[in-house]
Amino acid sequence: MPPWGAALALLLAALALLGLLAPRLRRSGRRAVGVKTLPGARGQDDDEEVDGGGPTDQFSDGREPLPGGCCLICKPSALAQCLLRALRRSAALKPGPRSWLSGPHLQTLCHFILPVGPGPELAREYLQLADDGLVALDWVVGPCTRGRRVTNAGGLPAVLLVIPNAWGRLTRNVLGLCMLALERGYYPVIFHRRGHYGCPLVSPRLQSFGDPSDLKEAVTYIRFRHPAAPLFAVSEGSGSALLLSYLGECGSSSYVTGAACVSPVLRCREWFEAGLPWPYERGFLLQQKIALGRYATALEETVDTDKLFRSHSLREFEETLFCHTKSFPLSWDTYWDRNDPLRDVDEVAVPVLCICSADDPVCGPPDHTLPTELFHSNPYFFLLLSRHGGHCGFLRHQPLPAWSHEVILENFRALAEFFRTEERMKGLSRRRASFLGGRRRWGPLQKREVSPSSNLEGIFNWKRSYTR
C-alpha cells in the first residue's frame, strides 16, 4: 500500500467512528441551537426525535413545508409556485424507514470514500483554451440499461453540464446523477479543471476557487456542439463556487437555462478561515496534495512547493497556491474579492436551486453558513433544506441513486414546462395585440376593452432580466 493509502485508511476509520456516534451528536447539537420541527411536515424521524428534526429557528419565517421534513425557502413568485407544486408531488421527498445511513458522517463518508464502481461509459474531449491550457469534458455515452426517456417534449434533448467538487474527486453521486440523467434523455457531460482527474497540466497555471474563465470557454464549446439544445448545469459541494461565479459574471448572457447546487459552499472565505472538522480537513488536504504531487516540478516556477506540501490547513494550502505566488502575489482580501462566488450574485438571471442539509458536517450549521437573505430577496435563488443528508450525500435506505438526483431532474423539467407555458402565453398576447391593432380603423373596435390576455405578462412577477 502506498504511504498515502495508510493515511487514508486511518481517515476512513476515524470517519466511520464519527458516523456511528452521529445520531447522538446530532441530537445534542440540535438542542444547543434550539431546533423546531417543521410545521405540517412530520417525517420518518418524528417518533425518535420529538425535540427536533427540522431546520433552525432562523428558517421559521418565509418557508414552505415539503414532504419528508424538508422546506423550500424562496421569494414568492409564479416560478416559485411552479417549483413548489413539483416538489410537493415528488416521490423522492417522501419519507421512508430509518436506516443505518441516516448519520451525517456516514452519508458523507459513503459519498466521498466508497469506490465509484463500474460507472458509466465516458468519451473524453480535451479543450485547448485561449492561453493554451487544457480542460477535459467527459461525455456520458452509456450504458443506459432501462431505455432512454425524452424529457424535453417537443424539443431537442437537453445537455446536462456537471461540475464536480473543487478537489477534483469524481464521486459516486456525480456518476449516479449522470446515469439517471442519461436514462431520462439528457446528454450529460462532466467538466474537469486543469490538472484534475487525469487532465494534463500543460502550463503552471491552475484554476482558482471562483475563477470561471475556463468554464466560460467550455460552455461556449458545448453551445457550439449543441446550438439548439437547452443547457442545464449541476455542481457539487465546493464546485458550486465555480458555477455561481460563472452565472454571476455572465448574467443574462449565459447559455444556461437552469442550475442546481448540491451542498454548496456559499460563504467560502468564512468556510476557509473557520476550518473544517479535523478528519475532513485532513482528508481534503491530503487529496489536494496527492493530486498536485505529480506536478510539483512544474509548479516550482510559480509556487513555493515546499511550503505548499507542508500546509496544515486548507486555508494555508489555498493561500500558498494562489496568493503567495512568485509572479503575481495577492493579498487574502484581494483573492476573495475576485473569487467570492456571490460577488456578482445580483447579476444572476437563471433559476438556481440549492439543496442543503441541516446536518452537513462539512459546511456547518445552516444558520451560520447559508445566507438566507439571498433566498428571501432574490427571485432566482431557491433553497431546499432537508433534515438529513450530510454533505452531498442525500442517500436513501436502499441502493438507489441519491434522492437529490430525482429532485434536480424534476426541477429542470418543471423549469422547462414553466418557460414553455410563459412563451405560449406571451405569444398569444402578442398575436391578439397585433390583431386588435390592425383593426383599429373600424369604429366599433376602438371602444372595445383590451382582452385580459394582453396583460398576461403582469401575472408573472418572475421575469428574465437582461442586465448585460
Please give a structural write-up.
- β1 (63-65) and β2 (71-73) form a beta hairpin.
- The chain contains 17 helices and 10 strands.
- It has helices spanning 3-20, 22-33, 78-89, 104-112, 172-183, 213-225, 240-250, 268-274, 278-293, 296-299, 305-309, 314-322, 332-339, 366-369, 372-377, 403-438, 443-446; strands spanning 63-65, 71-73, 121-128, 134-142, 159-163, 187-192, 231-236, 258-262, 352-357, 381-386.
- It is of the alpha/beta class and 468 residues long.
Q: Can you give keywords for this protein?
A:
ten-stranded mixed β-sheet, 17 helices, 12% strand, alpha/beta, disordered N terminus, 468 residues, 10 strands
β-strand number: 10
Query: What percentage of amino acids are in beta strands?
Result: 5-15%
Radius of gyration: 24 Å
Q: Please tally the helical runs, counting DSSP H or I stretches of 4 or more residues.
A: 17
- State the low-pLDDT regions, or none: 1-60, 439-468
The end-to-end distance, rounded to whole angstroms, is 54 Å
Major sheet: arrangement of strands: 1-2-10-9-8-7-5-6-4-3
Structural class: alpha/beta
Average residue pLDDT: 78
Elements, N to C (H/E): HHEEHHEEEHEHEHEHHHHHHEHHEHH
